[in-house]
Amino acid sequence: MRRVSIVLPDEVYQLLEEAARRTGIANRSRLISDAVAGYYSSSVDKEGFYAGALVVFYDHSRGETAYAVVDAQHGFADVIRSNVHMHVSEEKCVEVLAVAGRGERVLGLIASLRKVSGVISVQHSLVRVG
């Protein structure tokens, strides 16, 4: 572990204090460490190997959206390890995909899902494992 000093603008410092209050984590070093790790894990490079989850939020009442989401997944069976489907309303669904694979393939899956008409958002939480 290394000790570093940082200078934060007042506004960012206030956000740090608010995060500590909301999370109950008084250790600012831990909060900053988690934030940096989260920032790093949100960027995916093509060469790395990643594992984690994709969350696909979509409107299944819009034509063939549900079929297109499933079809997009079939092209990435080598990356998708598991999935869970949830109905969040009469029109909206959430699909959670457990994924593991090369960054290039994971990025391809994300791009493929984002192209589907009716998909509202695709978010990811990935960690580099190799």
UniProtKB/TrEMBL annotation:
Tell me the domain of life: Archaea
Identify the residues that the record assigns to the Transcription factor NikR nickel binding C-terminal domain, covering every copy. 51-126
The UniProt entry's GO biological process terms, in alphabetical order, are: regulation of DNA-templated transcription
Provide the GO MF annotations for this entry.
Answer: DNA binding
Spell out the Gene3D superfamilies in the cross-references.
ACT-like. Chain A, domain 2
Residue ranges annotated for the Ribbon-helix-helix protein CopG domain, each copy included: 2-39
What family does this chain come from, according to its entry?
Answer: Belongs to the transcriptional regulatory CopG/NikR family.
Protein name stated in the entry: CopG family ribbon-helix-helix protein
Q: Taxonomically, what lineage is the organism?
A: Archaea, Thermoproteota, Thermoprotei, Thermofilales, Thermofilaceae
